[in-house]
Structure prediction request, 452 residues.
Amino acid sequence: MKLQHYLGGLEGLGPVSTETRVFVEPWETRIFGIHTAMMALSVQLPLPATPSAFNTIWTWADLRKGAESLNPFDYFKYRYYEKWLGGISGYFIERGYITAEELDALTDEYYQDPSKPLPVAGDAAIDDRVVQYLVEGDSPKRDVTVTVDFSVGDVVRIENVPSIEHTRLPGFLRNKTGTVETVYPGAYTYLCDTGPDGIGPTMAVYCIRFEPAELWPGNAEQNFSLYADLYARYVAAIDNATATKAA
Amino acid sequence: MSERFKYREDREAYSAARVRALEALLIKKGIITDRTVDTVLEFFETKMGPFNGAKIVARAWVDPAFRERLIADTPKAIAELDLPDGMAGAEGEHMRAVANAPGVHNLIICTLCSCYPWPVLGLPPYWYKDPTFRSRAAREPRAVLAEFGLPIAEDIEVKVWDSSAQIRWFVVPERPAGTEGLSESELETLVTPEAMMGVAVAKAA
Prediction:
């Protein structure tokens, strides 16, 4: 069980941040740009081939898996882009694109001389693809016919699926009941296959309304509703609560 | 264990050097170019950003039929406007708008990560990414909104939308009173990312 999958409702955390800046240190912009380029150059996308040496998959799911695998104290300790820098550096090392030694050595050089320039190199086709990705996106929606078990207004029960590395089911909704608010048209894949957690294959997606008084018995604010978009894998019939839904 | 709660003293200088080293290595190895990161950042300064969301909201304020279409089919309504290419691009492939109204206040959250509608709002501010906000807004939105300086009366229903699948949400705030004489472009200046996520409301200047 990962705390990062169960954040919703966690108590005792103190005041929220009201920081409206996107980046609070100039260096953070650079890791954001690197991440976005990796998503755009990721090999599974149907975009034009480029001379880039990047030949593996990198999606939001990979970034999220890294953040979700952190020690939960570190998850709270480090700022958003500090976690990105750690996860993305680790990925390039693990996949053999760079070595930890050369990254450490070059870090020392830039630490001693922050004004040392970056290398000048690269084929413009790489940057064209990055822009094409941003403009076109990577829609997970598929116009295929899938089983849609529920309709607007149906009361449903949320499964407690075995999530290990990664999930899109918020922990605080597991085993709760809710009411279908929207059945989204079409069907959706996910960025990766989450194994026994069960998303990845094309399936319906619902928006489901939850009563905070059921989510947080005796401990909820009044006159409020919580809605969540949930993949069909996570949604089960109310009268069949213990049955295992076919994946 | 105490080490876990300490930061290195050169925390920012170290990260700055490390990210520069990483970028340099990626350029040297032919993964990205010397222009790639700047290309991404320029895209978010000029093409994808809250300036688009402000135009969408201002149009919804002056054109009630557009507002209805925006709620009914968000991408289709956005496509009516003269906005940059990419309004259904990265992190905006499937957007959905909800409208504040008398008696209803909407708040968008992402308890699992930081899903955010890039084409219309650009990148998420730090408050949205804060694990404390993401934890607390799911159980006590009124307490959280009060910390943002936005007390919500008890008779107003708060609707919290958790972005846990691939739909990206935003809020159409209510048009502030006293803005009847303003042009659409003047109205745009009253729309903030915070109002379009629900931790603020739009205010007359």
Observations:
- The CA atoms of residues 13 and 169 of chain A lie 22 Å apart.
- The domain at 3-136 of chain A is CATH 1.10.472.20 (Cyclin A; domain 1).
- The longest strand of chain A covers residues 224-231.
